[in-house]
Amino acid sequence: MKRFAIKDYGKAADVFEEIEASSREVDATHVRVEVKAFGVNPYDVSVRLGNMKSFRPLKFPYVLGNDSAGIVTEIGADIKNVAVGDAVIAHSVGGANGEELVLPGHKLIKKPEKMSFAQAAGFVTPWITAYNMVTHLLGNQIGEIVMVQGASGSVGSLLVQLLKANGKKVLATASSRNEAYVRELGADEFSAYDKEDAGERFAETADTVIDGTKGGRSSASGVKIMKTGGNYVALNQLPEDQSKAGNYLHFGPSKDYSDLEALEKLVALYEKDAIQIKMADSLPFTLASVIKAHEMLEGHPPAGKIVIERV
């Protein structure tokens, strides 16, 4: 079985290698999936660079990847939600960057027929992040007006759509080149960060600000936009200056969140044509493609998801 692994922390071109691995056994609660596509996320880049090794050390060679879609080829005796031959969306704790994956049955769901494998693999972590942030981290405290910074990104674009599906007024920031796309997603008002200061335009406007960018200038702008006493949620870097009254929250995964719950909501919205994902690139199933995907994400990536797809 072919898998793409890292042999150490470091630059993508230096540490990625193609390996042959033995198949894992499937116990009563697990499912074997033939991977047809897997997504590459900023999180994968951060793990590969060693940014998380202080609390998540790796044993090398290590196979990255949490997001995939494929065909079920074997199920354990206790599995009831999928059957052999089903096309599925899967969210694993690593190991998705390869031809095959074994994971618990509660970490996957049947893929809608009209959703491609590439789309399915692209949705997973960005959607689970957006859903859990809105539904569980913020819940009833989110308010009626929400600013999404980085609204053209994979998480930001799904946040805009989910918030609109929940009846919220959505303010959005992104590059001016992505304005038409963000407005198409449903944003009520848009500010191009490369043309104006959204903080000045929307000062004291949003009940909640969600910063899906890497931080920096957007943090100061977001604090201005947040109403006094409101919520500021960061995917990456919280503002250094938190002197303004408010709830400053850093979002991260939690064992208290259910993948299946989030994926069920995704499928329900997708089947109603209420959610979409923008694909930035679908690359062939090669080592060179995996390296390229990581290098693209480390730069200034295009709007949308990058996936690796077997054809």
UniProtKB/TrEMBL annotation:
InterPro entries: ADH-like_C (IPR013149), ADH-like_N (IPR013154), Chloroplast_QOR (IPR052733), ER (IPR020843)
Superkingdom in the source lineage: Bacteria
Identification of the protein by name: NADP-dependent oxidoreductase
Enoyl reductase (ER) domain location: 13-308
Naturally occurring in which organism (per UniProt): Enterococcus alishanensis
